[in-house]
Design a protein that fits this description.
There is one protein chain. It is rod-shaped and about 150 Å long. The chain contains 21 helices and 22 strands. Helix 11 (about 240-305) crosses helix 17 and helix 13 (about 355-370) packs parallel to helix 14. Strands 2-1-5-4-3 form a five-stranded antiparallel sheet. The protein has a five-stranded antiparallel sheet with strand order 7-6-10-9-8, with helices on both faces. It has a five-stranded mixed sheet with strand order 12-14-15-17-16. Strand 20, helix 19 (about 580-595) and strand 21 (about 595-600) form a beta-alpha-beta unit. It folds into four domains: about 1-120, PAS domain (Beta-Lactamase, 2-Layer Sandwich); about 125-235, Beta-Lactamase; about 355-500, Heat Shock Protein 90, CATH 3.30.565.10; about 525-640, Rossmann fold (3-Layer(aba) Sandwich). About 45% of the residues lie in helices and about 20% in strands. By secondary structure, it is α+β, with helices and mostly antiparallel strands. The longest helix has about 70 residues, at about 240-305.
Length: about 650
Amino acid sequence: MAEQLLSSYGKAFRDSAVAIAVIDSVSLDIVFSNKAFLRFFKDVQAINGKNLFGLVPNTLQALRDCVLADALVACDWPAGNARFEFSAIDPPGAESSRVQCVVLPLSAAAMAGTAPAMAEAVNESYRRVLDHLPHNTWLCTAKAELFWTNRTSNLFTYGEAEFYDPGNTRHLAKVHPDDLTGACVAMSQAMAAGHMPQPCRYRLRDHNGDYHWFQFSVAPVLDESGAAGYWVGTSVNIQAFYDAEQQALARIAELETRCASSESRLLESQRVAAQQHKMELVAHLAGGVAHDLNNLLHVMGINVEMMQPHAQHGAMHQHIQILEGCLKKAGRLSTQLAGFSGRMPQNAVALDPAQLVIGVQELLSKAVGAEVDFCIDLGADLHPVLADKSYLENALINLAINARDAVDRRGVVRLTVENRVACCPGGIAGDYVMFSVEDNGAGIPPELQSRIFEPFFSTKPAGKGTGLGLPMVRIFVESSGGFVEAHSELGQGTRMSLYLPRCEAVQELAPDPSAPLQPGVGKVLLVEDDESVREAMDSILTQLGYSTMTSFNVDHAVMLMDNGVRPDLIISDIRMPGKLTINDLIDVVEARVHVPIIFATGYSADVAVTEGLIQDRYPVLFKPFSACEISARIGAVLARGAAGDGSLAA
């Protein structure tokens, strides 16, 4: 209809000085209007701060009457010097009800070109400034009825320089549904308070259908009495700022994530460092305790051996057997302490896994208890492994005790030993012997499995575990060149597997403790700072037939040799108080005395290496050792020296 009217009226209609418009009588939308009507409509509302149809009395009624009567109906507005003439365009009963509105001046002076009083109040230059502001500008009544928008707002929202929404509804449809409630609340609060404390953001759809972020503010326009006649508002397009803000927020979130990650890594590093420091302290303490315990066990062991020939029968013999059993258990405890200190295994030798398991089978059975169904599966032709026998036995007993606790003394525990080709954590495949202890217990929760090798962490109830068993097992296996695998499922059980590398060496036979001691002849210089150890060693050497000279540290021993003492053999501890070290003793012996040395220590093998006792250069005995062992070692060393072998090693 609007296009037909525009085509019929043509340019003369659009440029006519008479204000003419076509209005929908129901929605009050202006279907079409010429420039004169738009200018009139806009100026009236800008000056009066009210919607035109609400400002002029009886205007709406006149508009509807013309539709009902299908006749021309007029309505005068003396205050505005205007006459409104309404005539229906659509026939009666039609679906649409459009009305033509013609606005005529009441006075002849106005027709002659004299501007009405209302129009004179509008400054043309000021109106143009408002129309061309780069921001959307609009006016609304005290009831929040939008009645005027500037050219910038119209172009953005509707794509037209002039557009009016007398029904006050179209602009609401342009606000994003998610933002409409917030905008309405902000507007209502501003009108209730008489001012808007801070701008409000909302999204507004342009004439192409795209949403843009805007920020609007409103302020009241006060009349002479100080009351708000109407409100003026501006909406600023902040899409570019919003995009930059979102990028900044995303960057901040990324930095916060990175900071949180860095903080987490820092805290983890601090925790690991604290744990390592704690482990170093505990390891140092464990090493020191193991050293002192080895000295005590060494003294007790030698004295028990010396008592055996005098108590072959009766109650004394039984007492000695009990002491020997306790010494073995204490020796295992000392081995565990030394292992926990992170030191190298003391007496790593080639072992037959089958013989080792058979030898410790009784202890394993006692460890799991009579109520547990315990079985052992030994593979055929097991490879020898290079390991410390005591350490390996302790590791298996430790795993057996853990399995017993896992089945709550009512279940199945299986020890499997077999050859395996496996890949170490570094990804290199090799031949290993696997010692696997498996139970059908409750299993370990997945969230705790990564912590089972953490020192002082235990899955057992309070008072049931120290959290040191598995860490000691892992330290021993890794120091022996192997690795540990753990597999556990809730309700299915746990399997702990120790992989020790295959060893090609021939199994070393330890001296038979029941074999008779080998008597000897010669002068032995015994260098030992511990008085009880020194006295025990002096007694056993004297009993073996050696002439013993004792010294309490390296300084004293060197002084003796500087004054002419020439022993056939030196037996010395490794670490002793004094100005001179064990390396000074070696220098003196190699430069002037030229006699073999046997070192005896309560420390572990890594201490011997640290002190310069290179492997195969000097024999080293690790306390506690038996009288049989020292007898055999002295005999071998002196026999080699007598044969003219230049090597100082046994």
